[in-house]
Each structure stands twice: as C-alpha cells, then as structure tokens.
Amino acid sequence: MSERPILLEASDVAKHFGGVKALRGVSLTIREGEIYGLIGPNGAGKTTFFNCLTGLYVPNGGRIVFAGAELDTSAPHKVAARGIARTFQNIRLFAHMTALENVMVGRHQRTRAGVFGAIFRTPGTRAEEAAIQRRAEELLHYVGIADRAHDLAKHLSYGDQRRLEIARALATEPRLLALDEPAAGMNASETGELRTLIEGIRKDGITVLLIEHDVKLVMGLCDRVAVLDYGEKICEDVPAVVQKDPRVITAYLGAEAQPAGSEVAHG
Amino acid sequence: MSWNDLKHDRRVLWAGYAAIGIVLAVLPFLVGAGLGNAWLRILNFAMLYIMLALGLNIVVGFAGLLDLGYIAFYAVGAYLYALLASPHFGLHWPVWAILPLGAVVAGGAGALLGAPTLRLRGDYLAIVTLGFGEIIRIFMNNLNAPVNITNGPQGISSIDPFHVGGVTLAKPLSVLGVTVPSLHAYYYLFLLLALVIIFVTIRLEDSRIGRAWVAIREDEIAAKACGINVRNIKLLAFSMGATFGGVAGGLFASFQGFVSPESFGLMESIMVLCMVVLGGMGHIPGVILGGILLTILPEAFRHAAVPLQKYAFGKVVVDPESLRMLLFGLALIAVMLYRPAGLWPSATRKRELQGGSK
Amino acid sequence: MDIFLQQIINGLVLGSIYALVALGYTMVYGILGLINFAHGEVVMIGALTALTVVKLLAGSGLPGPVIALIGLMAAAPVCMAIGYGIEKIAYRPLRKAPRLAPLITAIGVSIVLQNLAMMVWGRSYHSFPAVLPAEAHEVLGATFTDLQVIIVLVAAGMMAGLLLLINRTRLGRAMRATAENPAIAQLMGVNVNHIISLTFVIGSALAAVAGLMVSANYSIAHYYMGFILGLKAFTAAVLGGIGNLAGAMIGGILLGLIESLGAGYIGDITGGFLGSHYQDVFAFFVLILVLVFRPSGLVGEKVAERA
C-alpha cells in the first residue's frame, strides 16, 4: 500500500476545550485508495479529530495537507468543496425531507443554479435539476435503499438512515469519505452489508477514513489503523500489528492488563 | 373515480384553474356590490398580507429563522415610495422605478440586518430581529428633526397613487368599455403581484436554493457538512423575504396615499408571523390561507361585534374594538391547540403528526 | 456630574423593576425553553388590580404603606391565578408541538388579557393615588424619593428571597432539576407538572410586585403598559443570559442604567442630532451588540456548540 500517493497528511493537529486537551498534536497520513481506520477508547479524540478535519472545530494548532494543497478548515463547506465528505456518529439527516431530497442536498456544492435560474427555470437550470435528481436516484440505488426514495428520512429504519447518510456524503463527490462509527447499533447481518458497501466505495476510487468501535469490522476492513488514546496517536500500522501492540491493549483494557481477546468490547 | 384520480386528471385541473381564475376576476365586483367598499379595501389588504406572509415564510418557514422584525422591510418599501413620490420632498418618481428600487433596497436591508444575526439561534435571533424592527420604527418616528426626513409621527401624506404613463389608478378606469373603479383596479394590480410572488415562491421552494434553506432549518451542521455555505444561504433567505416585503410596502404606500410609523409596529410583525404559523409554516397554500384568514377574521369580528351584542343584550355592553381583538386572541389560541402544525400543513408535516414521531 | 448621578438613580429604580419582570421570563425559559410572551400582560393586570384597590382605600385613613400592601395582597393572587391558567391552557397541551405553536398561543393569550383589561378598566390612563411617601432627598445635586428607595430595596429583597428559594430549598432543587432535564427529574420522583405550574405562579407573583412598583413610580397605569414593559424585561433577560436568574437581575439593572444614561446623554453624544426620545433605541442597540458579540448573554454559559 505504501507506494500509493499520499492523499491527506495531518501534522500536529491539536484541539483544546478550556483546560481539556482533546487532541495533543495528532499526525497521520492517509494514502489514496486505502481504507484507514481510526480507533481508540471513548473520549480518545476520534470524533474531535473528525470535527477538526471537516471544519466544525477550529483546531488550536497543526496543519492538514489534502491532495497536495493546504486544507482550509475555517468553514465546513470549504472542506466539502475540496472533496472531503463525512457522516455523523449520531446520524444527522434532514428529518423532514425525503430520502431523495436528502441526497439532492448533497449535490448543492457541485451545482450552480441561483435565484434567477430557479425562478425562470432556464434550460440550464432544468438540465442541472434533472441531473441532480438522476444522480441522487443512482446513489440511493447504490447504497441499496432506492425503494425508500420518497419516504421521509425520519421514517427510515436505523440501518437505512446510516446508508442514506453515506449516499448523501457520496453526492458531494468526495475523494475522501470520513465515516464516524457507521456500524454503531447495527446487527451482524447489517454490519456485513455495510462492509460490502464500504469495500465497494473504495473500489470506485474513494479513500475511506473510518472511525469504528466494532474492532472486528475495522481489523477485517482496514488497510491501516491508527489508535488514539487521550488525544495522542499511540500506534499506526496494519491491523495485524496494531492488534498485538501492547500499548493498544493497555489503552483499551486499562492498566490492569487482562488477557487480550481479539474482540475488544466497548460501550 | 376517486377524488385523487380526479385531482390528477389534467382536464379537471385546468377546469379548476379556470374556475378559480373566474372567481378571482369577478370577486371585487361581487364584494363591492354585496358587502361594500370597506370590504373591498380589506380584500386588497389581504393581497398585501399574502405577499408579506409569503416573504416571511421564506425566512421562518423554509429556512427556520425566527424573525420578529419582518415588518421593517414593509416599512422600508412604503417609506421609500412615500419619499420618492409625494410632495414631502417634491419628488414624483415613476412607479416602474420606485417599486424595483424598493425591492432592491429592502433586499439589501434584509441582508444587512441579517448579517449580524447569523450566529444566533432561535429565540436570540427572534429578539434581535425584534430589536431591529423597533429601531427602524423609532427612527421613522423621530427623524423629523433636526432634518425632516420622515416627518415623524405625523407620517407622509398625499403620496402619489399608482400610475403608469398617463394612467392612474386613483380614478375609475375605462377598459374595453367597462368602468373599473379605483379600488377594483388596485385589486387587480395587487392580485397580479401576489400571483407573481406566489409563483416565485413555488419556483424557489422547488430548487437547489429551496432545498438548501430547508436543509439549514432541519440541521445546520449537517447542511454545512454537505457543502452548503450556510452564511450565504441564510442571507439569501433574509434578503428574498425582505424583497417581497419591500414590494408590498411600496404598493401599500401607493394604495393608502399615507404612511406613518404606526402601521409598522411590532404587532404588525407578529400578525404576519401568525399568518405563517397559523396557516402552516413552510407550506405555500397554508400560508396564503393564513394571510387571508387573519386579514378577514379581525375585520369580520369588528363588523360582528356590535350587532352581536345588540342581539344578545339589547345594547352595546363592551367596546366593540376590544371585543373583536378578544375574539381574535381566543381564535389564535384555539387554532393552535387543535392544530399545532397550522390549519393547512404540508403533506409531510401531516404525515408526521398522524404517523406519530419516534 | 449631577445629571450623571441622577440618571444612575433613575436607572437603578427602572432596572429593579425590569429585573423583577425579567425573572419571570427567565424562570419559565429555564424550565420550558419558551418565551412566555404574555408575562408583560400579567404585570399590567397586577398594576391595574393593585391600583384599583389602592384607589378604593385611598380615603380610608389607613397609613399609605398598609394600603399599598393590601393592594399587593389583592394583585398577587390575581396574577398568580392568571399565570397558573396561562400555563395550563396555552402551554401545557403544546409541550410536544412544533416550537412556534406555543409562541402563537402566548401571543393569543397576550391579546386576550390586554383586551379583557381594556373592557374592565377602559382605554384611559389611571393615575396612582399618592399613598406612598414621595419626599424628595437631595444628594450631590441629584434627587431621589423614599418611594424610589423602597422600590430598590423591595426588589433586592424579592430577588434575594428567590435565590434562597432556588438554591437552598427542596423545592428549589426540584426546580433546578426540572430545568436541567425534565425526563430525569421525573424519574427521580419530581412532579414536573407541579414544578412548572409553580414556576409560573412564582413568576407571576413577582410580576404583581413589579406592577405595583411601576405604577406607583410613574403614578400611572393603563391597559397597554404591559407590552413595552414586557418587551424591555425580556430584553433584559436575554441581555443577562436567558435561563439564568443572576443574569436576569444583572441584565435588568444594566438595561435600566443604559436606558436612563442613554436618554440623559444621547443629545450630547450626537451633538443634538438625536434627542432623548431615542431612549428605546439604546436598549435594543445594546442588546444587539451584546448578542452579536456574546450570543449567550453576559452571564450565560449554557449554550454550547453541538457537533
């Protein structure tokens, strides 16, 4: 994998909340086309890193280079424009819009129609609107919920809501898709389908950054894994190595090192 | 054949439109002849309020930004018209210049007042917009000294009526041999502009911009993550809403011939907000219904207040003015208690209420 | 210097009244997260009820302060009953409704109360009989009356009492718990509905006191007074950080000071261009500045960015 070009390089990203140092200078490198896992105990700073990366938080230090140029994380929409899309740990859909409309919103950045075009419905706007809808339908089909297109997002099942969020993120045409615990709350068969979906996304040329608690999923899916603990990266390697790293085992199980199982349970 | 099939039959649809068109066309003559000119004026005001309600609906209903100072933009449009077309400054600009200018200035004011409020949420936004509304009103009230700009509480009178070329709406018009009285002519003008605004609103709702507004209302953070420039889209909502207000304000000034700060108080903002919420926030037909009902209802109560008392007690016991407002207040409460999502909510809202939420 | 001191005194008196009313807004907001738009009208009803009773007793030979106290005794239950009723009728059924629905019913209640008051008391201004000591004292060129001193002291006393109630009693603990998380409070055995009703009742009692004060201070009351007073008090609550009791008090006093200093000096500041009738602009202008630069209010800390 390591011969692939670098897509994202974060160096010394730090974030403090008052006296709490949520991120203490995290550096990591994600290469094009890989599935990169970010794991760690609760409160290790995984989601904080996501929020810094996607412009929801202003980091206190560090820089991020994406696709060869400095990433301006001052506003989320600028990050999205550069080609980074994300999902949220506690699903954030537009509850009173249909599934299709949710994905259509994802096309916002990649389309141009303004007030004038909307009012006069110029040929250009009309073509664009049709393209938006077509693409949204394709994406719903892609994640496997085409039959729910006209249901309100809030009426979708939990698993379908996760898929819808991924479809919406894909609609922004990302080069890097950041998924925040996509398998949370899913049963085994749903997780299996999710895994297939993520592998498919990678196959289509999109790099995936994955925060996940389901260690089995991470180890089976990711090319490389970084482990965060107390806001610091304590380890970064291929899953087989990470799994056996004593620092990781300690971080997950606490100081009183119990026998390490391959399944590290978490609440 | 069920009602739904009927609704989707194109011929039925067109017949329906034609029927509505005919009703709207003859309405002023029916109202004028049947109920008198007072009601015709009320009908004209209903058109203005529909424009205002639809403008506020963009801000509150679509984008979810609670604005309690919306009437300020109505005021901007009205005062702009009054200043540029009255003896006050001796200016008599043509309508075709003032109305678009009013729309642009109000739209600019919308963006200007919206800008500092972008970070505010919910009730904080409400109170700041309310503050802006009051500030504008207070300035209108007091900018008569040392330089007389607004003529203070006395307001500006003798404003030019709506006129294009040599044709003025102040006098009865003769169109194809039919004499159209002034009130009726204003009705057609307002109807036309209300239809334009309805059309614009429908088009905007079903567009990339409209989806972005609703997305912000639903979840601002998710909207940002989807690549929406929330700041610009919010400003656009404020600005579009204000534009409608500016146009309605200009029309109001030309129709009334007189403007004063009294017409633009907080109660007016609240009235327009009630129209939006009571009708069905975010749902265009509902908002139109709200605009019509809340214009007509208080007037109907006014006309009913005296006869009703005479009938019940044989004499007028309480002040009819307060009785009508009392009834109006009770109606507001009753409607909200029984239909919290408004009288005519959008289908998705209705589904949500019936289906029960999670 | 004397103008400055005078405006400070006036501002303190005005601010004390704002603070009392603001407490009513902020308590309700803290627990239900809604603007009790009708609260200003409760103040108005309190003022007019007290004024009516005081007028009746004015010639009875009773000492002035006793008359005022009886007026308050009459106004407080009326206001408390109205506060209780408002919550029960207009807000409780809508607790799970869309957010703007209770705002509209509140506006409805406001209109109803205003017009009921107009039916009972008419459109005219009522003057408040001079039963309270109004002797003027002079300090450093500024004057203040006994009445003004009483207003500030009573307001301070009421606020101290409320703080004790909220922070030191079982009831206060239940109120704080409900404000923090109603569902959990319910699980812990707090009767949430009861607490919410009580919040309205306490807020309305404060409103009655404020009503008496404002009508005694300006010697006048009328059916329309609640609107602008409520608006200012709400502004004060937001200024301090809505939902925060100390914030409401600070916000109220501050708004009173800003208004009266603003009214006193605006002419000088603008070289005579703007006069003292721009007093209200000051209140709103400061409010907007505070909210834009410190959206959670001066004391508020609760609003955190969710992500």
TrEMBL record, chain A:
<feature type="domain" description="ABC transporter">
    <location>
        <begin position="8"/>
        <end position="255"/>
    </location>
</feature>
<dbReference type="GO" id="GO:0005524">
    <property type="term" value="F:ATP binding"/>
</dbReference>
<keyword id="KW-1003">Cell membrane</keyword>
<dbReference type="Pfam" id="PF12399">
    <property type="entry name" value="BCA_ABC_TP_C"/>
</dbReference>
<dbReference type="InterPro" id="IPR032823">
    <property type="entry name" value="BCA_ABC_TP_C"/>
</dbReference>
<keyword id="KW-0472">Membrane</keyword>
<dbReference type="InterPro" id="IPR027417">
    <property type="entry name" value="P-loop_NTPase"/>
</dbReference>
<dbReference type="InterPro" id="IPR017871">
    <property type="entry name" value="ABC_transporter-like_CS"/>
</dbReference>
<keyword id="KW-0547">Nucleotide-binding</keyword>
<keyword id="KW-0813">Transport</keyword>
<keyword id="KW-0067">ATP-binding</keyword>
<dbReference type="InterPro" id="IPR051120">
    <property type="entry name" value="ABC_AA/LPS_Transport"/>
</dbReference>
<dbReference type="InterPro" id="IPR003439">
    <property type="entry name" value="ABC_transporter-like_ATP-bd"/>
</dbReference>
<dbReference type="InterPro" id="IPR003593">
    <property type="entry name" value="AAA+_ATPase"/>
</dbReference>
<dbReference type="Pfam" id="PF00005">
    <property type="entry name" value="ABC_tran"/>
</dbReference>
Automatic annotation (TrEMBL), chain B:
<feature type="transmembrane region" description="Helical">
    <location>
        <begin position="12"/>
        <end position="36"/>
    </location>
</feature>
<dbReference type="InterPro" id="IPR001851">
    <property type="entry name" value="ABC_transp_permease"/>
</dbReference>
<dbReference type="Pfam" id="PF02653">
    <property type="entry name" value="BPD_transp_2"/>
</dbReference>
<protein>
    <submittedName>
        <fullName>Amino acid/amide ABC transporter membrane protein 2 (HAAT family)</fullName>
    </submittedName>
</protein>
<keyword id="KW-1133">Transmembrane helix</keyword>
<feature type="transmembrane region" description="Helical">
    <location>
        <begin position="122"/>
        <end position="140"/>
    </location>
</feature>
<feature type="transmembrane region" description="Helical">
    <location>
        <begin position="270"/>
        <end position="301"/>
    </location>
</feature>
<feature type="transmembrane region" description="Helical">
    <location>
        <begin position="42"/>
        <end position="63"/>
    </location>
</feature>
<keyword id="KW-0472">Membrane</keyword>
<keyword id="KW-1003">Cell membrane</keyword>
<feature type="transmembrane region" description="Helical">
    <location>
        <begin position="95"/>
        <end position="115"/>
    </location>
</feature>
<feature type="transmembrane region" description="Helical">
    <location>
        <begin position="70"/>
        <end position="89"/>
    </location>
</feature>
<feature type="transmembrane region" description="Helical">
    <location>
        <begin position="185"/>
        <end position="204"/>
    </location>
</feature>
<feature type="transmembrane region" description="Helical">
    <location>
        <begin position="235"/>
        <end position="258"/>
    </location>
</feature>
<dbReference type="InterPro" id="IPR043428">
    <property type="entry name" value="LivM-like"/>
</dbReference>
From TrEMBL, chain C:
<feature type="transmembrane region" description="Helical">
    <location>
        <begin position="66"/>
        <end position="86"/>
    </location>
</feature>
<dbReference type="GO" id="GO:0005886">
    <property type="term" value="C:plasma membrane"/>
</dbReference>
<dbReference type="Pfam" id="PF02653">
    <property type="entry name" value="BPD_transp_2"/>
</dbReference>
<keyword id="KW-0029">Amino-acid transport</keyword>
<keyword id="KW-0812">Transmembrane</keyword>
<feature type="transmembrane region" description="Helical">
    <location>
        <begin position="246"/>
        <end position="266"/>
    </location>
</feature>
<comment type="similarity">
    <text>Belongs to the binding-protein-dependent transport system permease family. LivHM subfamily.</text>
</comment>
<dbReference type="InterPro" id="IPR052157">
    <property type="entry name" value="BCAA_transport_permease"/>
</dbReference>
<feature type="transmembrane region" description="Helical">
    <location>
        <begin position="195"/>
        <end position="214"/>
    </location>
</feature>
<keyword id="KW-1003">Cell membrane</keyword>
<keyword id="KW-0997">Cell inner membrane</keyword>
<feature type="transmembrane region" description="Helical">
    <location>
        <begin position="98"/>
        <end position="121"/>
    </location>
</feature>
<feature type="transmembrane region" description="Helical">
    <location>
        <begin position="220"/>
        <end position="239"/>
    </location>
</feature>
<dbReference type="GO" id="GO:0015190">
    <property type="term" value="F:L-leucine transmembrane transporter activity"/>
</dbReference>
<dbReference type="InterPro" id="IPR001851">
    <property type="entry name" value="ABC_transp_permease"/>
</dbReference>
